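HUMAN: Forgive my ignorance: could you write out one protein's sequence and backbone structure tokens?

ASSISTANT:
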Amino acid sequence: MISQPPPENDKSPYADLINEHNLDVCFRKFIKLESVGAREFRKHRIQIPEHTAIIFTSKNAIDHFFSLCEELRVQISEQMKYFCTSEAIALYLQKYVQFRKRKIFFGKHHFADLMDVIKKNKEERFLFPCAENHKKEIPQFLKQQKIQFSIAPIYRSVPEDVSDVDIDKYQMLVFFSPFGIQSLHLHFPDYKQGETVIAAFGKATQKAAEKSGLKVQIQAPTKTAPSMVMAMQEFLENHK
């Protein structure tokens, strides 16, 4: 079982892996994203119109931000600048703003790439819409460069109801966040790993799994396997 939504098409990175090893794979989300809502957001005393630039690191952040603005009845200035960590995220903005009429910048993929552009716009006051459990590296980057910014927690990860799953029938469980591990133990408090293979993406997920008593046999990213698909491929090749 892979704790992610089912692929939208046959071009999923898992497709070749499934065909090559004749795998029976189930995709099922173990977590979901929940908006904090206007009432809760007001407690942070952040005034969105006081900012002149916005940093987006995911499509989820874009969706939740504009939904929040609608709930708050906040109008975004046409002069607002947008800084996105990738071109795909920048293009996704077209869902909410007229792309050609806005000042939109994007990096190659990582936030460090985007910092070069942000440093050239130090006069702006940035807003960073993010999850409550956001990565601390981004605020640290901004502080180091003495960028004016506000952190705006606008959504959170919460466990998805997976109590209908027959969890013991799966020979491998693949997790991508600590919240997935939390969801597993919430819905299956008596779960015993036994011979089941546990895969964890990211150090935080691995630590959460091990702290909960699980043995992690597949880890990603690594030098030889930067993606979970590659890590699973390595494992399957070594355990034929």
